[in-house]
Design goal:
About 75% of the residues lie in helices and about 0% in strands. The protein has 11 helices and no strands. The relative contact order is 0.16.
């Protein structure tokens, strides 16, 4: 299943780059606590967890979200406002609902999940490709809602991961933000058909050389 594969790849990215991803999560929490730096820190979190980055020297630091706000804050704040308004409204509806509105609760839950997934993917698009907030929302909606065979299994696979992280406070604090960013980066790149090169997988030329070396050892003098 494609969704499960993406979750596993995101987890692999997180454990393979444990130190920078942990620092990125800590920086994200600091940005969220400050509120002012929250959208910029979120954008940088997705940039840091870009799976296409091979060398750690090419990986941006979370400090850019705090030290260069003008470069990131326009798009980041615009996207945050577009995403957060419907999410806050839906959470308020669920919190204040009574028996008269009980029939609408499943619809609100589905909408909340849809807006949350679309928002996370939109932040990934803005961070990885520098689209405008409106373009990112449009693309994210198409990718999230247009591929239910991938998105739904991914969300199902995320449930036990979230339960474990919520049950264990330290992993939730140190790893969960970067883990989610890595997974949704993978989901966006997969939806756009952009290949992510695995540096651990040998190239075709290397495979040919290895097969020749094995043949020499088997049949040579």
């Amino acid at each position: 299943m494609r969704g499960l594969h993406i979750v596993l790849k995101g987890m692999s990215d997180t454990f393979e780059h444990l130190l920078p991803f942990t620092l990125a999560s800590l920086g994200w929490w600091l940005g969220i606590i400050s509120i002012l730096f929250g959208p910029g820190a979120t954008q940088m979190l997705f940039r840091i967890t870009d799976p296409r980055i091979i060398s750690e020297l090419d990986r941006p630091g979370i400090r850019a979200a705090f030290w260069n706000p003008r470069k990131h804050y326009g798009r980041a704040w615009g996207l945050a406002l577009i995403v957060m308004v419907p999410i806050v409204v839906l959470i308020a509806n669920l919190s204040w609902s009574n028996q008269n509105w009980i029939i609408l609760v499943p619809i609100w839950v589905i909408l909340l999940i849809s807006f949350t997934v679309t928002g996370l993917m939109a932040f990934s698009i803005v961070s990885l490709f520098k689209n405008s907030a409106v373009e990112a929302i449009r693309m994210a909606a198409v990718l999230a809602l247009g591929r239910p065979s991938c998105t739904i299994p991914l969300l199902i696979a995320l449930v036990p991961v979230l339960i474990i992280c919520i049950g264990l406070v330290v992993p939730s604090f140190l790893l969960l933000p970067a883990l989610l960013a890595a997974i949704f980066n993978r989901l966006v790149l997969d939806g756009l058909g952009i290949e992510v090169i695995d540096p651990l997988v040998p190239s075709e030329e290397r495979r040919i050389e290895e097969s020749k070396e094995r043949a020499k050892r088997r049949f040579g003098p």
